[in-house]
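FORM 7B: Structural annotation worksheet

SECTION A. Query
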Amino acid sequence: MIYEYRCQDKDCRKITTAARKVADRDDPLACKQCGGVTRKIISLSTPHPDMQPYYDPNLETHIKGRQHREQVMKEKGVSEAYGKGWT
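SECTION B. Predicted structure
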């Protein structure tokens, strides 16, 4: 995951971005500018674009996006199979 950290030094306050494991997200991180202590901040999330429209021959319809696909599957009474032996 990508996290943002703000330097706690009152003269620096630089924001640093770091790719870290979720388990390590709260561990101390040195500021890249001054070497001071940083603290994780809550940053704006980046929206992910929805999938491109396509025709699904299994559902026999054009799918406009993820939510539309879920709606069509629900209307047709089908679900995806995941797990052991799924191909």
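SECTION C. Observations
Helices lie at 66-76. The CA atoms of residues 78 and 84 lie 19 Å apart.

SECTION D. Sign-off
Analyst initials: ____
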